[in-house]
Amino acid sequence: MKNPTRLFVPSPMSFMVLATIVMAMTFSAWNALLNNFAIEQAAFTGAHIGMLQSLREVPGFLAFTAVFVLLVLKEQTFALVSLCLLSIGVALTGFFPSVYGLYATTVLMSIGFHYFETLNQSLSLQWFSKEEAPEQLGRLLSIKSMASLVTFGLIWVAFTWLATDYVWVYLLFGGAGLVLTLFMAATHPQFVQQATQHKKLILRKQYSLYYILTFFSGARRQIFMVFAGFLMVEKFGFDVAEITALYMLNHVVNIFVAPKIGKMINRIGEQKALTLEYSGLVLVFVGYALVESAQLAAALYVVDHIFFAMAIALKTYFQKIAQPEDIAATAGVSFTINHIAAVVIPASFGVVWLYDQSLVFYFGAALAGCSLLLSQFITPHLKRVAA
């Protein structure tokens, strides 16, 4: 009989669940408050916010450097350090209400966020078997949405009913993230990894299709993150409450849909799942270009978010083709590849936006179309690997 007093049994899954909660809670709080804090407290202009977003993406572009840190830290320890940096960066944000203060705390937060996201992919693909990975990643995506939803709700209560100051909200969520990370460090032992990871940069020809699909994924992500939400505000006049409600609706949908997506990928395979995602995204981006109804635009935004949840299939495709010892090094390289577009698209497409908004989304549809064509080579590649 199991000891009834043993209420918490540490495991790789419990580590990933708690880490996901910390990441979702701290980053959601930072992101939800950013624009209002920047304008009201730090007197930001459009030029300042553009510079801040560029600075925020630099650690993502440099994610490949994670492999060098792994020369001195184990992946699990590095993940905990990253979550500490993320939490501390968020906790300190409210204490530095100035342009350079917000730049500094953002870079600190972003270093922790992007290193953790790199390690998160690496550890999950090592700890979960190929059979269980799609469903477990779907569950973690659902948990991420739950944590984000609770965070948004608490922030809404704090500013609507309690008239809370920014400094205390940032401190609350950043501090909670730090405490939870320290709890993880105290309760979770170092879990055994199946293969010793390379401590050098890995670029292999057999991963080329994965690299290219990752690049296109990053480019589409930027169009969604930067311009889809902006369309809601500029063209359809969504206010802060409406945008927040849209974010919350996305997370509510993901709570229920993400685990089912994981099961679906297990059932139909990566190629069919990505074919469905990329076909849907072509239609969604064309819809953004043509839409004239605020309600339809909001519906497209939710559907867009659901399709991006299907990117789990790209991770599990890599898991199936990768040599086990390559996973950590390749996770850093792929995260850098994913962020190449982040350096170029926001600024260059912002100029295109001034000329014709629809062209931005037609380009997004073209990117999704390229991914759709490339995804048709996945099953043949998997068969060659298996042979």
Write the topology of this structure.
Layout: H1 12-40, H2 46-61, H3 66-69, H4 75-93, H5 99-127, H6 133-160, H7 166-187, H8 208-234, H9 240-268, H10 270-290, H11 294-309, H12 312-321, H13 327-355, H14 357-375, H15 378-386
Transmembrane segments: 12-34, 54-73, 78-96, 102-119, 140-161, 167-187, 208-231, 243-261, 273-291, 297-318, 330-353, 359-378
Protein name: MFS transporter
GO molecular function: transmembrane transporter activity
Give an overview in words.
- It is globular and about 60 Å long.
- Helices cover 79% and strands 0% of the residues.
- The chain has two domains: 184 residues, Growth Hormone, Chain: A (Up-down Bundle), CATH 1.20.1250.20; 188 residues, Growth Hormone, Chain: A.
- The N terminus is likely disordered.
- The protein is built from 15 helices and no strands.
- The protein starts with 11 loop residues before the first helix and ends with a helix.
- This is MFS transporter.
- Pfam families: MFS_1 (PF07690).
- Keywords: Membrane, Transmembrane, Transmembrane helix.
List keywords for this structure.
387 residues; mainly alpha; Growth Hormone, Chain: A; 2 domains; 79% helix; globular
Structural class: mainly alpha
Cα-atom radius of gyration? 20 Å
Low-confidence stretches are: 1-5
CATH architecture term of the largest domain: Up-down Bundle
* Measured distance between first and last alpha carbons: 45 Å
Portion of residues in helices?
Answer: over 70%
Q: Total helix count?
A: 15
Indicate the mean pLDDT.
82
Order of helices and strands: HHHHHHHHHHHHHHH
CATH-level-4 superfamily name of the largest domain: MFS general substrate transporter like domains
